[in-house]
Amino acid sequence: MFKLVKNGIHHFSTITRHKLLVGRLCFRCGLYRQGLLHDLSKYGPSEFLVGVKYYQGDRSPNDAEREAKGVTTAWLHHKGRNKHHLEYWVDYDVTRRIPGMTGMKMPDNYIVEMFCDRIAASKIYKGADYTDSSALEYYSHGKGKVMLHPYTREKLELLLNKLAEEGEDAAFAYARKYVKAYRRYRIRHFFGNRRHS
Fold first, then answer.
1. Which of 41, 61, 70, 173 is least surrounded by Cβ atoms within 10 Å, i.e. has the fewest?
2. How many independent structural domains does the chain possess?
């Protein structure tokens, strides 16, 4: 029982530090709403209780649950409710001759939130060993295992490479411009469609 209470405190601390860090990074990019709402589902029982049970401190509890049970219920719940995860955007591609699962194009604001999420996770789990290359290295390690739409892959890799090569200030300055351009596009698209209705 003591171990569960201790795990609960540590898990709450880890996910809260992560959430606050993603929030700060999203704010640097102009994603205020997403920064505030990021990962709220982690505090619900479907995800939180599993996180407590499988808490380790140096990696995601989802990995431990997957190893123990062959599936992670917390992750399945989480990715279906959080649009900054590429897995949220996996669907059937009916345009192919033989339909199969593929990555769909993510909206730009969620690509930037995913970028912030990857940086924050790298900082939390790597601690003092974190460098501006850490998020790119983690992404590159699992790159062949993920289904990303070519547009999403291009934009995410651009952001991760900019961070690794030019540092945080340059990467976040670019991300801010990217978010502003996306917002202008959405506004033009919204009002353009209303004029034609």
1. 70
2. 1
